[in-house]
Amino acid sequence: MSAQPLQLGSVLAHEEAKLLACVHCGLCLEACPTYVQTGDENDGPRGRIYLMRAVEEGRLGADAPTFARHINRCLGCRACESACPAGVEYGQLLEAARADLTNSRREHGAADRLLHFALRHIWPHPARLRLAFAVARTLRDTGLVRLLRATHLPHLLAPRFDLALALLDGSRAVRLTEQEREPTTQPASANITTSRALLFDGCVTEGLFARVNRATARVLALNGCATERPRGQVCCGALHAHGGDIEGARRLARQNIEAFADDNAAPIVTNAGGCGAMLAAYAHLLAADPQYAERAHSFSARVRDISQQLSVVSLRTGAPINAPVTTYDASCHLLHGQRAASEPLDMLRAIPDLEFVPLTGSDVCCGGAGVYNLIETELSMRVLDEKLKHIAETGATLVMTSNPGCHMQLSAGARLKGLRLRVCHPIELLEASYRKLAEKSSDAGQETS
Ligand code: SF4
Ligand code: SF4
């Protein structure tokens, strides 16, 4: 127990009103994946809020093992927010609790230390981050990761290392349609540009899923939206905020606000649920910063997921593609943070004849949750097993999701279990459908000429 609980609970102390908003009704419990898995009240939102209040009121130290255990075991999925009738802003409470926890701990485990080293010394430095992702891509694209995993050595040495390799391998591009080999025809842009958007790249997306960013720009162009990628943009700060480094997240937020300042009217579009929810939370993150509070508020108001941006245009219909049976798993932060439930599915409706099967529990976390899978591996895998079971029930062999972390978690799960399951972003499938349309028009043009 801490000797200075009030001092240790200082970040939570600023969130007292949000803590008091919880009326302890328990209506959020069944929506909470960790509570469902363990049945322990302290692994549910209500129990965690009790623990946060105990820290905030000085009855418990932020360095107490019970506090650390149950706050660390939270996925941060925010499903409890959607279920809560009292509007408790749990995501912001969790970030405050993690910040108090990080500040209070004298001892950190090896995984924790490694994470905080990377967040402090690699993530805020674009050149170092680019280098780290270039190394990761080389390991992935040369097949070294697969080769290493095939020896079973990583699993024998440390199952978590094997998981990390499976996650990296899971970011590889997959074949989306039965005939597709290499895309040859690119969809043409719309003849008339009617809108404009600034694209937020996202560090993991640009590092491992650049194809998704390029598909986003092409689909927007085809629907009459001109795009730009502002220079100087950095990581959104989600990993920092969720890992308890609120100051690190604030520094990144200020850099992004500056980077997107040139055109204050254009929406800021992202294709990653985790980044989008974080960018939309800059208003809260910088609310007490006199220099940035107002700018952060306007910045957050401009943030849209790609599916939300496409929902305001008259979305063009593509051509049928020979895709396998498909399902959709929602990114928690896209669904519960940005409240985009129907918009991602609307993108799929623009693909004619797509054989789509809804997924039971699509609104439940997959267990990825940033780097949660590498830190709370056992619980993460239990949550993932449940997800894979529901995906298997659909009969789909292609699952779509709108966040790189979810993408890698589902792909890694398939690899670890030897399942025939491919994963992609919905925008990739929509682009494939537009590409097919372009191929058809080009074939028709050749026939008539
Ligand atoms: S964020 Fe998710 S895991 Fe955490 S308490 Fe809420 S529902 Fe449970
Ligand atoms: S977080 Fe909301 S739903 Fe959960 S116990 Fe508190 S008031 Fe009830």
What does this protein structure show overall?
There is one protein chain. With 449 residues, this protein is mostly helical. The chain has helices at 5-8, 10-13, 16-20, 33-38, 45-56, 65-72, 79-83, 90-104, 110-121, 126-141, 144-150, 153-157, 159-169, 203-208, 210-222, 238-242, 246-259, 273-280, 282-285, 293-301, 306-311, 332-337, 343-349, 372-375, 377-394, 404-417, 426-448, and strands at residues 195-199, 225-228, 268-270, 303-305, 326-328, 398-400, 422-424. It has a four-stranded parallel sheet, sandwiched between helices. Helix 26 (404-417) links the parallel strand 6 (398-400) and strand 7 (422-424). It is globular. The model is unreliable at 1-8 (pLDDT under 50). One iron/sulfur cluster binds next to helix 5 and helix 7. One iron/sulfur cluster (SF4) binds at residues 22-28, 45-46, 49, 80, 83-84, 86, 88.
Q: Can I get a quick summary?
A:
This protein has 449 residues and is mainly α.
Keywords for this structure?
single chain, 449 residues, mainly alpha, Fumarate Reductase Iron-sulfur Protein, Chain B, domain 2, Rossmann fold, 4-stranded parallel sheet, 3-stranded parallel sheet, disordered N terminus, binds iron/sulfur cluster
